Structures are given as C-alpha cells and as structure tokens.
C-alpha cells in the first residue's frame, strides 16, 4: 500500500479547496450545478435522477431530517408522484433519499426507473419530478412537523416490536453505527430520531432549488450504431440548460392535478 499510494497527496488540491470554499452558503462544485448530464449505459437502462449536493445539516444523524424529506418526496400514497407515474405506466419505481454522504457534502437524490412508455414521455417525467420537488420546498413548518410526528410514532413502534435478527447481522450493524452514536443509543438512534430539526428542514428546502441540481438521464441512444450514438449524444448535449429558478406552488398543484 505504501509503495503504490504514498505519492497521493493527503490534502485536496488548492484549486478544489477554493472551489469548495465555505462562502455564500457553500454549495459544493457550484460551477457544475444546474446542468443536465446524459449517460449512455452498456446494458439497457432508463433512469432519471436529480441530485442536490449541499453541505450536510448539523446533527442530521440524530434528527433524521433527510429521512423526513425522503418520505415527503418518495412515499407511495395515492396522491403521490410515485403513484401517478405508475398509473400512467411511465415508471417501474420511484425513490428519494440521500445518495452520497461525505464529510462536507450530502447529495439528496430523487430517482425514477422508467418504462419504455416513460422514456417516450421523458420531458414530461422530468418536468413532473422538478415540480414535485418544488412542492416539497413549499411545505410549511407545521406540515413538516406533523409528518415528522407520524413518522416518529411508526418508527418507535417498529423499534419496540423488532423481530430477532441473526447475531452476526446485529454485531455488524452495531459496529458500523458506533462510529456515529454512543453505546447507549447505538440501537435506538439509527431508527428513531431525537428531535425535529426545524432549521435543518428549512436548510434542506433551500438546497432543493433547481439552480442547485444536477439532472442525470441514463438511457440507450435511439440508434444501434456508433454514428447514431454519437449523433444522439450531440443532440442531448444541445439540451443542456440552466433550470428555471422558481416554480410557483399553484403551477405545481395544477400540473399534478392532470395526472393524479
């Protein structure tokens, strides 16, 4: 290990530090946000992902504030975007939650696995996903607090009635969680939050703005040959654009009403 990796610098390059400097709220890699990235997979795949990288909310492992927004955006209720996309036959699955967690950045992600019909309505799916996120940004503290309390009740019941697990699985989970929680809370706290973080919720809502997003579209190009793939990639490159900064809540509700 020393022979092969001793030359790797222990600190990030100065230019990367400057890019990630804690200024104006510090959004990591700000110059790479508000853009679309098109990925051509090796195997057949149809996926739309919207990532929102931002500095982590202090105490998020205790408050589970990201889990709160995972439920708000990813739940499968009859009036959810997940249900609407499934009813139209546009998506096989829909999810929301943090996809990356490092020391100075957490990337919250909203993702949909599309059907062929969904790929044919790709722009509509993307539009609905951004509008669904915009709706979450508009939720007031009272509504978020009520959702938090409901989640807490369910999580506490689930913890109280936990079924027995294999000892090796419990030991592995405890060993991992001891990095983040004290021994007396290592079983409870990963599953039941300690408090409702109003300030953290507002911070996450601010970070879910379109100008902080990276849209990733993964799908096969329409042509089978290299020339077709190249042309499709060039066409997709032309579609890269900066997203609108604000979407009014009334417009969100009106748009969702057409599919819910």
Automatic annotation (TrEMBL):
UniProt keyword list: Metal-binding
GO biological process: peptide catabolic process; proteolysis involved in protein catabolic process
Domain (Peptidase M16 C-terminal) ranges: 1-138
Example of a GO MF term: metal ion binding
GO CC, one annotated term: mitochondrion
Zinc is among the record's keywords: no
Protein name: Peptidase M16 C-terminal domain-containing protein
Gene source species: Phaeomonas parva
